[in-house]
Design a protein that fits this description.
By secondary structure, this protein is an alpha+beta fold. Among the domains are: 182 residues, Multidrug efflux transporter AcrB transmembrane domain (Multidrug efflux transporter AcrB transmembrane fold, Up-down Bundle), CATH 1.20.1640.10; 94 residues, Alpha-Beta Plaits, CATH 3.30.70.100. The chain contains 26 helices and ten strands. The strands form three sheets. A four-stranded antiparallel β-sheet has the order 2-3-1-4. The longest helix has 33 residues.
């Protein structure tokens, strides 16, 4: 690290010009990268995905989408009875649109399940193609205009469905650019408080370069494989927070060394040896957590692993080259006005650390109790998708859905099960599967377009929407019966996707978890020159993640917070892909603070301090830094939560809550109290392990007598 610092200082103009060119190129390719991002949640090799692909190939729609529900409500005093032909013609007109749409209604099934109890409203299922990009628009207007043009005089037409409800009143949310600017403004406010000088703008500059560099590095990946649109949000917001955190750590250490009397050159090199070393290991740890997603047999999660791992790597690269280059040149002049000085530890954090060390048993017990209470809620987690009650509370889609619900239509119509069958056995399949407990109706469409290549799609309507790990039980029952029913080719639909995802992802979770923990442990043994400290770090990270998941269950699934903060009712479940994403990101991001704190504690211990003294000095030096860094990341996630869609909000709040919990309960209370409790055991490293990892042996000091709590 010293050699790198010396090289950057000797070639700082070259380094800055190089990053300027990279930034310009990154800016020019950003739109190209965004246009290449995909919306694809398929699970190749899983039965639901394979069946959905066959349905899409035959019909050009459905399979991997839930249908829109188009309603025709007759005016007061009139009923559907007597207007069947006109309503049927209105629904059939949808199939003439430019978009390949498939209609299932009373006219082509002969089933009166498509009416409300009062006989005033008729509805149809309209299956549409899966969107090919994040900006794709639902064919809601296409369907509405087509039916309205043919509907009986005075009738009211509405369009609803899970996706239409998710869009809600179409007020949407902030764009990625607006979210990034909001996060940047929040970060600037924190940085101005931390530095009280023009240096506050340096981490923002580093973040901007890092984000554009990440997009540039992502471009070749998009040429070889599909990359999920979610990566765009993560690069912008997580990249902003991570890059600022790394630069904040480096600049703070540089200021400390300057205030201690070192020359600017030596201050930069010392910051590289200490803070730069911590940044390097932090970045690798975050990247490991994300790259572990690659072992999962899910393309969109793999792409998030590839793209997400570029975020910390780009941030590390920029922080360890551009930051020292700027500080080595104009750093002292930019550190103006010089209001805050860093030669002394934070008095407040030193007093806090002293209190925690003095009452280490009480502190550790209290922190563990908080984690245990939050983690207990994790036992009740339901993996799936947001239910209809948590989606829109206003707008035309909500109004249309309320007409159906008040008319006695089961909510299962939102998530029908599509069963691809041999055409000549479709009726017998419908009869058999319609008897499965929890199925309200088994529909066999007839007429033009119903049969393609000797195949038909039997549509099953469950009594309740199949959106989470408990409500998909009926889908599993259907699959079990279908496996032993002649004529069945496969089962598809949202519920089938849920079952496949639970099997493919959470069935492979032990492999991913073991890989992350092993790699992180080895890396941290090398960083801390200890066996106990890395083990404690890994265990605490897993414990804090369980607490985060418990908090998400309370906040979103049960609704204790979602309605008050976002005006969104309890979701009833945590979206199937979000826990794995929260785990991958938080495992590495929270480890950042562990590395920052323990690196400084290790440094103080190696300088001759006792364990308790090292803890107090380390927290005194890093407490304000870690709390500021956590606040910046939290503000970035708060900006992310302002984006459109409930799922993005759930992801953002999970990450934000995790960061705050980690920076407060874990790093400010549990870490210092446990390190103090472990005493000299923290620093033990067998010589054989030190030689294998090519690090210096760990020297253990004699500990002075301790006072009791």
């Amino acid at each position: 690290m010293r050699a790198l610092g010396e090289w950057v200082l000797r070639h700082r103009r070259l380094v800055m010009v190089g990053w300027l060119l990279i930034t310009v190129v990154g800016m020019s390719v950003t739109s190209t990268v965004n246009n290449r991002l995909t919306v694809d949640f398929s699970l190749p090799g899983q039965p639901g995905t394979e069946t959905a692909a066959k349905i899409v190939q035959a019909y050009g729609n459905g399979g991997s989408t839930v249908p829109l529900l188009v309603t025709v409500t007759m005016p007061e005093g009139q009923t559907v009875t007597g207007n069947e032909q006109a309503i049927g013609d209105a629904f059939a007109s949808v199939t003439k649109a430019d978009v390949p749409l498939r209609v299932v209604d009373e006219a082509n099934t002969g089933d009166d399940a498509f009416r409300t109890d009062d006989d005033r409203t008729a509805y149809a299922m309209v299956f549409y193609p899966f969107p090919d990009s994040f900006s794709s628009v639902l064919p809601t207007d296409v369907v509405s205009k087509a039916v309205t043009a043919q509907a009986p005089d005075g009738a009211t037409v509405g369009v609803t469905g899970m996706d239409a409800l998710a869009v809600g009143d179409e007020s949407g949310g902030n764009s990625v650019l607006v979210e990034t600017l909001l996060g940047g403004l929040g970060a600037l406010a924190v940085l101005l408080f931390v530095f009280a000088s023009l240096l506050a703008f340096l981490p923002l500059l580093v973040a901007a370069v890092s984000i554009l560099t990440t997009f540039l590095l992502l471009l070749p990946i998009t040429l070889f494989t599909d990359v999920s649109f979610i990566v765009e949000f993560l690069i912008a917001l997580v990249g902003l927070g991570v890059a600022i955190d790394y630069s904040l750590l480096f600049v703070t250490r540089w200021r400390e060394e300057r205030d201690r009397g070192r020359s600017n050159h030596e201050a930069v090199v010392t910051a590289m040896e200490t803070a730069g070393h911590a940044v390097l290991f932090s970045g690798i740890t975050v990247a490991i957590g994300l790259l572990a997603l690659v072992v999962l047999p899910v393309p969109f999660l793999r792409s998030i692993g590839y793209g997400g791992a570029l975020i910390p790597l780009a941030s590390v690269l920029v922080t360890l080259t551009l930051t020292p280059a700027i500080l080595g040149g104009i750093g002292p002049r930019v550190d103006w006005p010089k209001i805050r000085h860093e030669q002394e530890s934070s008095r407040g954090w030193t007093r806090w650390a002293t209190l925690v060390v003095r009452h280490r048993w009480v502190a550790a017990g209290s922190a563990l109790a908080v984690l245990a209470l939050l983690a207990a809620a994790f036992a009740g987690i339901k993996i799936g998708a947001a239910d209809s009650d948590s989606l829109a509370k206003n707008g035309p889609a909500y109004d249309a859905f309320q007409v159906l619900r008040s008319g006695g239509v089961p909510t299962g119509v939102l998530t029908p099960i599509e069963v691809l069958t041999d055409a000549d056995q479709a009726d017998s399949v419908a009869q058999t599967l319609g008897e499965v407990d929890g199925i309200d109706a088994a529909l066999v469409p007839t007429g033009d377009g119903a049969e393609v290549d000797g195949q038909k799609v039997v549509v099953l309507v469950p009594h309740e929407e199949t959106v989470n790990s408990q409500s998909v039980a009926v889908v599993r029952d259907v699959q079990d019966v279908a496996d032993h029913t002649d004529g069945v080719i496969g089962v598809a639909g949202l519920g089938a996707d849920q079952v496949d995802f639970l099997h493919a992802v959470y069935g492979n979770l032990p492999l991913m978890l073991g890989l992350i923990c092993l790699l992180t442990f080895v890396l941290l043994v090398r960083a801390f020159r200890s066996l106990l400290l890395p083990l404690k770090a890994v265990v605490l990270n897993l414990a804090s993640l369980m607490a985060v998941f418990g908090t998400m269950v309370l906040f979103w699934q049960e609704g204790y917070g979602s309605n008050a903060v976002f005006g969104i009712a309890a979701t009833g479940a945590v979206t199937f892909w979000i826990p794995i994403m929260v785990f991958a990101f938080l495992y590495g991001l929270s480890m950042d603070y562990e590395v920052f704190i323990l690196s400084r504690i290790r440094e103080e211990y190696d300088a001759g301090a006792s364990t308790d003294e090292a803890v107090i000095r380390g927290i005194g030096r890093t407490g304000r830094l870690v709390s500021s860094a956590a606040l910046i990341l939290f503000l970035a996630f708060a900006a992310l939560a302002s984006g459109p869609g409930t799922d993005i909000k759930v992801l953002a709040t999970g990450l934000g809550i995790g960061i705050l919990l980690d920076a407060t309960v874990i790093r400010s209370v549990l870490v210092p109290s446990l390190v103090s409790l472990f005493g000299s055991w923290n620093w033990k490293l067998p010589d054989s392990v030190a030689r294998a990892l090519r690090v210096e042996p760990s020297v253990v000091h004699a500990e002075p007598p301790r006072r009791r709590d």
